Amino acid sequence: MTNFNFPLESTYAELPDVLFSKLSPTPVSQPEIIIFNPKLADEIGLNFSETSEEQRTHFLSGNLVPQGTAPFAQAYAGHQFGNFTVLGDGRAIVLGEHRTSSGRRFDLQLKGSGRTPYSRGGDGRAALGPMLREYIISEAMHALGIPTTRSLAVVNSGETVYRETELPGAILARIAGSHIRVGTFEFASLQGDTAITQALLDYLIDRHFPEIKESENQPLALLEAVIEQQAKLITHWMRVGFIHGVMNTDNMALSGETIDYGPCAFMDTFAPDTVFSSIDHKGRYAYANQPYIAQWNIARLAESLLPLIEGNKEETIAMAEDVLNSFEQVYKKRWLSMMRSKLGLASAEKEDEKLITDLLDWMHASQSDYTNTFRNLSNSTLISGELYASKNFQNWHSRWQDRLEKEEQDRESSIAQMRSVNPSVIPRNHKVEEALQAGEQSDFKPFHDLINAMNEPYEEGEHLLPYQAPPQPGEKVLQTFCGT
Ligand code: AMP
Ligand code: MG
Questions:
Q1: Does 260 qualify as catalytic in the annotation?
Q2: Which of 176, 191, 217 is the last residue of a domain?
Q3: Is the distance from the beta carbon of residue 134 to the nearest atom of ligand 1 less than 6 Å?
Q4: Is the model's pLDDT at 1 over the cut of 60?
Q5: Which residues does 255 contact at the CB level (< 8 Å), separation at least 6?
Q6: Distance (Å) from CA 333 to ligand 1 centroid
Q7: What is the tens place of the pLDDT at every residue in 50-107?
Q8: Last residue of some domain: 148, 176, 204?
Q9: Does residue 60 sit within a domain?
Q10: Cα(265)–Cα(436) distance, rounded to whole angstroms?
Q11: Which among 41, 51, 53, 57 is positioned nearest to 157, based on CA atoms?
Q12: How far is the centre of ligand 2, averaged over its atoms, from the C-alpha of 352 (Å)?
């Protein structure tokens, strides 16, 4: 007898068949829950209260598919580092969609759940380390106030996965607004039947963009909305120094959430060209490139939608290009306003952009820590230390003080504003690696400690000190891996 108080729907599986494959996860031998996220379960109303621990474990590992549930893997394509490939959920299965009491719809997906028709050469499984990484960083992103897929649980599968070495296997239960990607539209468009792309567009609008339903030109209205959505998301990333690392079009979700935490990492020392991913040789996905790549990805979405735009080919291309070109302005406006808030500025002055870029230039030249510099500026006490004694910084600081004088809001409000956007703590890469390495040896204390430290990242506290310190030279982790 299984008691799950939340029926899972599969509205996505009402789309044209080519877009998904119905199948269930492949069972694992000895699942064991490593971490479960009760706060998230409560937040969205996934009620496990009448489910035994054993049932919950089997459910979250994919061993138990409740009656009436119809799981599926999604087909998609994508530009990976600029090259087009047909992909799909090779190691993930959407168990179903959960509808909250307020009517919001979420996918419950299991990642590492076994082979699917899209697995290509892969084993459909995931190693423990990368799933712990996704849990830590996605939940930290959420705490930082950044749209993201969430992590409901990590389950140890009890099985070994074979990469370069033998590794413990795991399954991540992921919650997402949806898993529709730019690459899903590329895949639909590849079928050469506009009815498929149109069905996907209708579905996407219903689920994420109801406000454009009445629009006369839905594809163009969608592009405009996606430009706003992604500009907003990337601005958040830039605010906290997040580097996604693998912004392929299949890793850009049209729910507006950060998705697929592979080689991602947070920047310690400020440097616009920072790259962590071991496979990003040319720095395509470097920190400062992220807005350009977002625009590039949206251009691929535009190409997929072209056949749905009324008019001859030249006309539709020109219309789409016009919309795409607006990205720069939309992004710039958001970035400026975000950077102003990092400096406690509520009003806008012409001089602000130079004030901001001069600070960033100084940070770059002096190899300052991105997070700590902004947090130090947010402290009402004067900032001290050798770094800040330099003439360049002092000059900048007095310009900033003069600029703050022009604010109508009082200093206290400026400081409160700064403290709400400049985190005191981020999941620094060396701390993440430390937690994963211990986890792989079955010591989950550093993992849990790090997650707890990231609970309220805009607050201060003694317990945060070890997480606030930048890595010592010997602790620096300069490279991250895709984690398949
Ligand atoms: P990612 O780098 O996680 O975005 O994955 C890129 C593509 O490779 C996706 O289509 C994945 O489903 C697929 N993939 C990654 N790892 C595996 C695996 N172990 N088995 C099968 N497919 C995989
Ligand atoms: Mg992916």
A1: no
A2: 176
A3: no
A4: no
A5: 147, 176, 177, 178, 180, 208
A6: 35
A7: 899 999 999 999 999 999 999 999 999 999 999 999 999 999 999 999 999 999 999 9
A8: 176
A9: yes
A10: 14
A11: 57
A12: 38
Q: What is the DSSP letter of 47?
A: -
| Average pLDDT along the chain | 96
Catalytic residue among 107, 250, 260, 280: 250
Number of neighbours of residue 476 by Cβ within 10 angstroms: 14
Question: Of the bound ligands, which one is closest to the alpha carbon of residue 126?
Answer: 1
What domain range is 41 assigned to?
11-176
Q: Is the CB of 124 under 6 A from ligand 1?
A: yes
Q: What's the pTM value of the predicted model, to 2 decimals?
A: 0.97
Alpha helices in 45-162 (DSSP H): 53-61, 128-143
> How many CB atoms sit inside 10 A of residue 252's CB?
27
The total number of structural domains that make up the chain: 2
Cα–ligand 2 centroid distance for 260 (angstroms): 5
Instruction: Summarize the confidence of residues 318-323 as an average pLDDT.
Output: 96
| Residue 446: its H or E element | helix 445-453
Residue nearest (by alpha carbon) to ligand 1 atom 8: 90
Q: Is the CB of 89 under 6 A from ligand 1?
A: yes
> What single letter denotes the amino acid at residue 1?
M
Cα 340 to chain centroid distance, Å, stands at 23
